[in-house]
Amino acid sequence: MIRLTDRAWSPYLTGALIGLLQVPAFLLLGTALGASSSYVTVSASIAEVFDPAIRSLAYAGKYLDGAKNWWQVALVGGIALGAFLSASLSGTRRSGVSPVWTRALGTSNPTFRFALAFVGGFLLLFGARLADGCTSGHGISGIAQLAVSGFLAVGAMFAGGIATAMMLRAVR
Amino acid sequence: MSVLVAMAAGLLMGVAFGFLLEKSRVFEPGVIVGQMQLRNFLMLRIFLASVASGLIVLALGTLTGIIPKLDPKAVLYGAQLLGGFVAGIGIALAGACPGTVLAQVGVGYRDARLTLLGGLAGALTFAYLEPAIRPVLLTGSPGKLTLHGLLGVPFWPLALGFAAVLIGALYALERWRPWRAELGDNAAGVLPPAAPARALPAEAEPAAR
After folding, report:
1. Is B57 on the interface with A (CB under 8 A)?
2. Nearest CA among A78, A112, A101, A96 for reference residue A168
C-alpha cells in the first residue's frame, strides 16, 4: 500500500509512472519529455531585456517563443512545485545542503559547496545544450524512442559523471 | 495550441513529474553522486524503469496510431559525445540533472539555487557561442537515426523486446540488492560505509573508553 505521506516509493513504480508522462507529452505537444532547452528559453528571455539582438541569433531565437518552449518552462517549474508538495506531505523538506557533500568533498564549508554547485550547473547545461539534450530528453525520452543520439549522449554522460565522481571522496 | 494552454498542461505534468522525482528519491544529491561512484543504484533503477515504461507506451501508441509519430533527435557524434561528457562532469559536481535540480530547489536545498543559476548561465553562454561552435561540432548530422531504422524493422517489436530486457535487468538488480537498502538515513541516499572501518588504528576508537 503506498501513501502520499510515504518518504519513498518504489523506484520501479515511480520510474514507470514517469515513463507514462510520455503519453500526454506526445498527445498534446507531439514531443517527448525534456528539461534542458527550457534553460535557453528562460536565460535568453532575460538576456533579451539587456540585449534585444539575441533574438537574431538563429539558435537562441528558436527557443524564445512558442507553445513547445514555454510548455517545457512550465514543466520544469512544475517539478519544483511537485517536489515541494511531496516533501511537505512526507516531512522530507530540506534545508542547507545534502550530507553527501561533506563526505564527497571532505569539507562542510558552504561557500565551497555553493561555488562548486554553480560551476557544476554551468557545465551541466553547457554540455546538455551542446549535446542537444539531458538525462530527460536524451535519456528517458531518447532511449525510449530507440534514438541513436540518446544512446550516444547517455553513454557519454555516464562516462563523464563516473570519471568525475570517482575523483571525489568515496560517499560510503 | 496556445502558449497559455501549453503552459497549463506543462505545469500539471511538471507537478506530477516533480512529485514522482521526490518520491523516487532520484533527485537526492546522495543518490546521484552515489550512482556515479557505483555505490548506489537507485538512479539506474528509476532511469531504466522510466525507459522501459516509455518504450511500452510508445510501442502501443504508435502501433494503434494514437501517437502518429515519434520525435527522435538528430545524431551529431562530436556534439553528443563531448557535450554528454561535459554534462556528466556537471552531474557529478552539481549532484543534479537539469530536471532534478528543480526538485532540489523545491524541497529546499540551498546549493541547488546556485546550480540553477549556473545552469542558466551555462545555457546562455552556449546560446551566444553556438554560431562559433556550429561549424565545428554541429554540422554534418547523419540524420535522426534510430535503432529500428538502422535495422529496418518496425519500432514496436524492437521497443517491446528491449523493454523486456530492461525489466529482466531490473529484476536481477532487485535480487542482487533490494531498493530499500539504498535509501539511507532520512531517505537522502547516503549509505553507511560498505565495510567495517578496520583500517582505523585502535586508538582512534572513542568507544573504547
Report:
1. yes
2. A101
Q: pLDDT for A134-167, tens place per residue?
A: 999 999 999 999 999 999 999 999 999 999 999 9
Calculate mean pLDDT across residues B41-49: 98
Interface mutation vs chain A, best among B4, B60, B70, B73, most A CBs within 10 Å: B73
Close Cβ partners of B154 (under 8 Å, ≥ 6 residues apart): B148
Contact A60 B130 (CB under 8 A): yes
Angstrom distances, CA of residue B47 to CA of A24, A170, B189: 19, 23, 16
Mutate to test the interface with B, among A38, A72, A75, A141 (most CBs of B within 10 A): A75
**SS3 per residue for A95-146:** CCCCCHHHHHHCCCCHHHHHHHHHHHHHHHHHHHHHHCCCHHHHHHHHHHCC
Among A16, A59, A124, whose Cβ lies nearest the Cβ of B50? Answer: A16
Residues on chain A touching B47 (C-beta within 8 angstroms): 15, 135, 139-140
Q: Which position has the grid cell 528509476?
A: B46
pTM across the whole model: 0.94
Nearest CB to B18 within list A22, A83, A117: A83
> Is residue A50 within 8 Å of A44, Cβ to Cβ?
no
pLDDT tens digit sequence for A50-106: 999 999 999 999 999 999 999 999 999 999 999 999 999 999 999 999 999 999 999
ipTM > 0.90 (yes/no)? yes
Nearest to A153 among B71, B80, B127 (CB): B80
